[in-house]
Specification:
The protein is an alpha/beta fold. It has one domain. The chain has 10 helices and 5 strands, in the order H-E-H-H-E-H-E-H-E-H-H-H-H-E-H. It has a 5-stranded mixed beta sheet, with helices on both faces. The chain is globular. It starts with a helix and ends with a helix.
Length: 197
Amino acid sequence: MTPRVRRIRSTNPIYLIVTEGETEQKYFEGLRRRCPRKIVNRIYVKNPNDTDLMSLIKYCCDQIHQMELNTGKGDRIFCVVDYPQNEKVIPNSLKMTGKKGIELIFSRPCFELWFLLHFKRVFASLNNREIMKELKKKLPKYRKADKRIFEKMEGMTETAISNAESIGITNLSDIRNPSTNVQELVKFILKLIKEEE
């Protein structure tokens, strides 16, 4: 464990967010910047530059060991990924994450669905290209991995949460298109912020 993590660890839980891509990383780094200092120092956003679900879960497991995280002491580990094209990996991934206390945050077909939900409800099955096309109608200057993406949509977060809950995820092993549970992680961080105000 690094000295910084050890110092923070003495009394407070640590929250690790591992993201599949740079877009997700930039969004959660933006949300993290909105947190009071006491919380910022407990939230780690990491991107191992890997899109394979099982590799990401293994990375989370490595980080749990390296950072000495313990869900029994309040630490939480989130793995933010697009729903895999190969659905056969889902049962093994759920088994692995369950054993380690890793919380899967899925979007189907892609993370940009979460961004689109800031503007409207989405019920039709869409592919990645169609999501991007719809998003660019609402956010014409959108580009992946935008460092300011959170700030550009911050005022619409409650709308996105409501819209995401209207399509929801009830069963991680059978996620329909479109679906996301990104709102669960966002609500968790917003609750931490509110508790510190």
